[in-house]
From TrEMBL:
InterPro entries: Metallo-B-lactamas (IPR001279), NDM-1-like (IPR050855), RibonucZ/Hydroxyglut_hydro (IPR036866). The lineage of its organism: Bacteria, Bacillati, Actinomycetota, Actinomycetes, Micromonosporales. Pfam families: Lactamase_B. Residues 24-220 form the Metallo-beta-lactamase domain. GO terms for molecular function: hydrolase activity. This is MBL fold metallo-hydrolase. Keywords: Hydrolase.
Length: 235
């Protein structure tokens, strides 16, 4: 069931599905009466609509901004179902998404690409399961583009960290709530690009830890407290 849970301060989390074959990322809402910030869009228009229903169910303020943590499909394909939001993303992701938007997404296209490169199979099967109608899917690049760091009008900070998972990986910091949203920044590269030696980038997480931040949230993992994150790094 798609639903939001309060984490801390004005940060609410909507976890993704934990079935790895579905490749469904979680999203976050930073609630603010001046206009909320949605972090990632959902993996498809139908997933986005489920997220919208979950927001409505607990009467959270509608998002005014949508921040992409990176350009991968399970974080951005729902954006076309969020009318009226301004999309914030890194300049590298904007370039990549313009190329993605030009692809003829459809079941025949997915099949042809998997036949060309079998390693795309898990990701492309998940896309086929996620999208109810290819006619309603439009891949949207960000409209508000940044390079290094950006502070949004509600005091939320967006910072490019890069890494091997995606060149545009971005973290979102909510200082007044003591929360950092990590996206997939420390994960190894996607399966079709991964090598046997690729591992999670724990050094990246270590550089991000901050005594002023009490919660660290990844898109496909449960939230960790600062103490839990330090223990995981030490282990």
């Amino acid at each position: 069931m798609v639903e939001f849970h309060h984490l801390a301060g004005r940060v609410w989390l909507c976890p993704g599905d934990d079935d790895p074959e579905l490749v469904q990322a979680g999203v976050a809402l930073i609630a603010d009466e001046r206009g909320s910030i949605l972090v990632d869009a959902g993996q498809s228009p139908s997933h986005a609509r489920e997220i919208q229903a979950a927001l409505h169910a607990i009467d959270l303020p509608a998002p005014r901004w949508l921040v992409y943590t990176h350009h991968h499909w399970d974080h951005v394909w729902g954006a076309c179902a969020w009318p009226g939001v301004e999309i914030v993303g890194h300049v590298t992701g904007a370039e990549l998404l313009r190329a993605e938007a030009a692809r003829p997404w459809s079941i025949p296209y997915l099949r042809a690409e998997v036949l060309r490169n079998r390693r795309l199979g898990p990701s492309f099967r998940a896309r086929a399961l996620a999208v109810d109608s290819w006619d309603e899917l439009t891949v949207l690049p960000p409209t508000w583009i940044f390079t290094d760091e950006l502070e949004l009008p509600t005091g939320v900070r967006v910072r490019h960290v890069g890494g091997r998972h995606a060149p545009d990986s971005t973290v979102v910091v909510v200082p007044d709530s003591g929360v950092m949203l990590l996206g997939d920044s420390w994960y190894p590269p996607p399966l079709h690009l991964r090598t046997p030696t690729d591992e999670p980038d724990l050094a990246l997480v270590g550089r991000l830890l901050d005594d002023e931040i009490g919660w660290y949230v990844s898109s496909h993992s449960p939230p960790l407290t600062l103490a839990e994150a330090r223990a995981a790094l030490d282990g």
